């Protein structure tokens, strides 16, 4: 037989008593106020978000866009999470935007090699950092965002009295300048140094570091409008490269040549730099600024720089009694112990008051295009800094309010 045809079983008195009790409990449950009933839907948890600058593709200033990312980064073993307070803008970032810096991963990618901030979380096996520490951070990329997860070994404790803006100006520029002058250049008292782009981040750092050595003569190239500023910082002989031949100007003052030339330009300027060296002099090349002539990649400038690139054989070097060195901080990833040692020396010099980063200007993430333009057009004196925090809206003036009212009235009339 099917289930429907089966006879119903007769209940015992005990079973009838249990059923009556269950029915009574069900009625009481239904009579409870609706407020006591469990919520049908759980309240969704608020998702953590943070602001990040992202290079969406190669090209002009508009290719770096402000985005909002979701999810709090969590530290892996040996990592810390840092709440970023300030980020550094470097020439490599300008090259990376045009696809001319091979150490930056392909877009979409968050640029930025340095920042400063507060430790918010600590991963396993991290014993020398704690929540609340003020730190300087150096990494290959990814620093232009509000929160970053980085290896604890890539962070350095900020000294007392250092601002977050100054801290973000330290790593790339000062490490570069220090290693070129002292590790490669072996700078000593009474020597002479040529610093191109003397008003830039590396230029200011190199000038300050030269001043830590007795009686060093500093030649610095910059536009005439910056001469007063770079002279105040320690440049002995400022030269306007736009109106004068810097080689002739240097030869007039130092006929025998120079002990050290720092070359961030490349192309034909590297040839000039080598010829300016005196016997036992050192040329340290660390960039190719001559290829950066506009917002986007300039193939003519690239071809010209490549055609005029400097090359020399070992025999010629031996006969000239000169040295040529190449420096690129981006390729020292595997030598972080060396970099850590340099940073320790730099922070000690800061504590002694012998170096102090010069911050040219600060720009909120929304203004990154203007910040890059200022640096690329060589209008800065010192370091350009990016701030992750949102730009606060300034109170509108009465004139601005009246202007808005006029615009609204005009729109109404058009409608």
TrEMBL record:
Q: Where is the composition biased (Low complexity)?
A: 1-13
Pull one GO CC term from this UniProt entry: mitochondrial outer membrane
Q: Which UniProt keywords apply?
A: Oxidoreductase
Q: Which SMART domains match?
A: PKS_ER
Q: Name one GO biological process term.
A: negative regulation of mitochondrial fusion
Give the stretches traversing the membrane: none
Q: Where is the composition biased (Basic and acidic residues)?
A: 14-30, 389-415
Q: Which Pfam families match?
A: ADH_N, ADH_zinc_N_2
Q: Which domain of life is it from?
A: Eukaryota
- Which stretches make up the Enoyl reductase (ER) domain? 59-386
Specify where the region named Disordered lies, as residue ranges.
1-43, 386-415
Cited InterPro entries: ADH-like_N (IPR013154), ER (IPR020843), GroES-like_sf (IPR011032), NAD(P)-bd_dom_sf (IPR036291), Quin_OxRdtase/zeta-crystal_CS (IPR002364), SV-ATPase_mito-regulator (IPR052100)
MF-aspect GO terms: oxidoreductase activity; zinc ion binding
Q: Which family does it belong to?
A: Belongs to the zinc-containing alcohol dehydrogenase family. Quinone oxidoreductase subfamily.
Under what name is this protein listed?
Answer: Vesicle amine transport 1
Organism listed in the record: Lepisosteus oculatus (Spotted gar)
Kindly list the organism's lineage: Eukaryota, Metazoa, Chordata, Craniata, Vertebrata
């Amino acid at each position: 037989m099917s289930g429907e045809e089966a006879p119903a079983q007769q209940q015992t008195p005990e079973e009838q008593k249990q059923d009556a009790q269950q029915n009574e409990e069900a009625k009481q449950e239904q009579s409870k106020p609706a407020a006591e009933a469990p919520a049908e839907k759980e309240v969704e948890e608020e998702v953590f978000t943070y602001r990040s600058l992202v290079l969406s593709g190669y090209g002009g200033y508009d290719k770096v866009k402000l985005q909002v990312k979701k999810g709090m980064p969590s530290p892996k073993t040996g990592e810390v999470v840092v709440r970023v307070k300030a980020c550094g803008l470097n020439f490599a970032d300008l090259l990376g935007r045009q696809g001319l810096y091979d150490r930056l991963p392909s877009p979409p990618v968050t640029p930025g090699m340095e920042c400063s901030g507060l430790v918010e979380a600590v991963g396993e096996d991290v014993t020398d950092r704690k929540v609340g520490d003020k730190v300087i951070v150096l990494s290959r990329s990814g620093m232009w965002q509000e929160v970053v997860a980085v290896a604890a070994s890539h962070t350095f404790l900020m000294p007392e009295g250092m601002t977050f803006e100054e801290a973000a100006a330290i790593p790339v520029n000062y490490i570069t300048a220090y290693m070129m002058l002292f590790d490669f250049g072996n700078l000593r008292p009474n020597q002479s140094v040529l610093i191109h782009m003397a008003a830039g981040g590396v230029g200011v750092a190199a000038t300050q570091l030269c001043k830590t050595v007795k009686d060093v003569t500093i030649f610095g190239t910059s536009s005439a409008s910056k001469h007063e500023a770079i002279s105040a910082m320690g440049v002995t002989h400022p030269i306007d490269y736009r109106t004068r031949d810097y080689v002739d100007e240097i030869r007039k003052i130092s006929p025998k040549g120079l002990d050290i030339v720092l070359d961030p330009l490349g192309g034909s300027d590297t040839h000039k730099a080598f010829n300016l060296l005196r016997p036992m002099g050192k040329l340290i090349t660390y960039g190719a600024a001559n290829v950066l002539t506009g917002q986007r990649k300039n193939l003519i400038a690239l071809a010209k720089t490549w055609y005029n690139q400097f090359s020399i054989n070992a025999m010629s070097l031996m006969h000239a009694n000169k040295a040529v060195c190449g420096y690129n901080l981006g390729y020292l990833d595997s030598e972080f112990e060396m970099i850590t040692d340099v940073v320790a020396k730099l922070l000690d010099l800061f504590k002694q008051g012998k170096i102090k980063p010069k911050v040219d200007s600060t720009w909120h993430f929304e203004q990154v295009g203007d910040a890059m333009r200022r640096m690329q057009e060589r209008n800065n004196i010192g370091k350009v800094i990016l701030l992750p925090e949102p730009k606060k809206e300034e109170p509108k003036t009465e004139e601005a309010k009246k202007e808005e009212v006029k615009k609204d009235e005009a729109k109404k009339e058009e409608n």
